[in-house]
């Protein structure tokens, strides 16, 4: 076992795969939306690895385009990740179905519409259509947020239990899920699950979400959002092959 991992990062002291790959992935994951550029010292602090270990791994990542070195000798994520992300989106072919649904939700409600998927212990915004309002919540495509906060997070956790079943029953009366100020104090959101079919099983694909300032999420707007969200979620689930019975 690598000594610096055992001493400084016990959580990864027993990797199940290839150690070098596991450590390289941890380096890539040390970057986030608020830290697009990191120094060697910052990477060391976030990963718990010695600088000598990081330099060896970064050399390989840099050579393959996963990391780039900036003029001030910091590091940022490289273009190869963008290429792979684009391939991932195209391979799923989700965008051609979900993007129009988000645009319809935005047009109907005036609030920002997003599609979130679960990403490890977080949730990532895969697609987003921003409101034209000057005051709105700010989330960008590709951003990863806390999983267990916010309406979309609750949907992704609760409806993941549908995974692996041939079919599923969803009670419309419990939807959409709402959150008020959970992740950001002044932001509210509503969300519904979208299902699909994988290997002959109905699975949760993601969460359709409408979000904006709490001040605009009046009881009237919240009531109006529900039918729009449910209609789009049902249509998407049908297109994606899910065997869902939506009950009142």
Automatic annotation (TrEMBL):
What InterPro entries does the entry give? GAF-like_dom_sf, HTH_MetabolicPath_Reg, Tscrpt_reg_IclR_C, Tscrpt_reg_IclR_N, WH-like_DNA-bd_sf, WH_DNA-bd_sf
Please cite one Gene Ontology biological process associated with this protein: negative regulation of DNA-templated transcription
PROSITE patterns under this entry?
HTH_ICLR (PS51077), ICLR_ED (PS51078)
Q: Which GO terms describe its molecular function?
A: DNA binding; DNA-binding transcription factor activity
Record's keyword annotation contains Transcription regulation: yes
Q: Does the keyword tRNA processing apply?
A: no
Could you list this entry's UniProt keywords, alphabetically sorted: DNA-binding, Transcription, Transcription regulation
UniProt domain IclR-ED: residue ranges? 80-242
Q: What is this protein called?
A: IclR family transcriptional regulator
């Amino acid at each position: 076992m690598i000594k610096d991992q055992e001493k400084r990062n016990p959580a990864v002291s027993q990797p199940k795969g290839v150690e070098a790959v596991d450590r390289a992935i941890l380096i890539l994951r040390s970057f986030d939306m608020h830290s697009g550029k990191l120094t060697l010292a910052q990477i060391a602090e976030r990963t718990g690895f010695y600088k000598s270990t990081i330099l060896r791994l970064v050399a390989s990542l840099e050579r393959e385009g996963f990391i780039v070195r900036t003029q001030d000798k910091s590091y940022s994520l490289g273009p190869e990740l963008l290429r792979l992300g684009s391939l991932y989106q195209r391979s799923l072919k989700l965008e051609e179905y979900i993007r129009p649904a988000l645009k319809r939700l935005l047009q109907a409600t005036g609030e920002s519409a997003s599609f979130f998927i679960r990403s490890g212990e977080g949730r990532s915004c895969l697609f987003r259509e921003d409101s034209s309002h000057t005051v709105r919540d700010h989330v960008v495509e590709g951003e990863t947020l806390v999983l267990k906060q916010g309406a979309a997070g609750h949907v992704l956790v609760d409806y993941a239990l549908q995974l692996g079943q041939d079919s599923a029953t969803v009670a419309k009366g419990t939807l959409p899920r709402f959150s008020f100020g959970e992740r950001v104090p002044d932001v509210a959101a509503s969300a519904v699950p979208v299902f699909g079919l994988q290997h002959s099983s109905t699975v949760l694909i993601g969460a359709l979400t409408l979000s904006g300032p709490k001040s605009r999420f009046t009881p009237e707007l919240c009531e109006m959002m529900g039918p729009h969200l449910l209609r789009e979620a049902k249509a998407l689930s049908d297109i994606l092959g899910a065997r869902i019975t939506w009950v009142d």
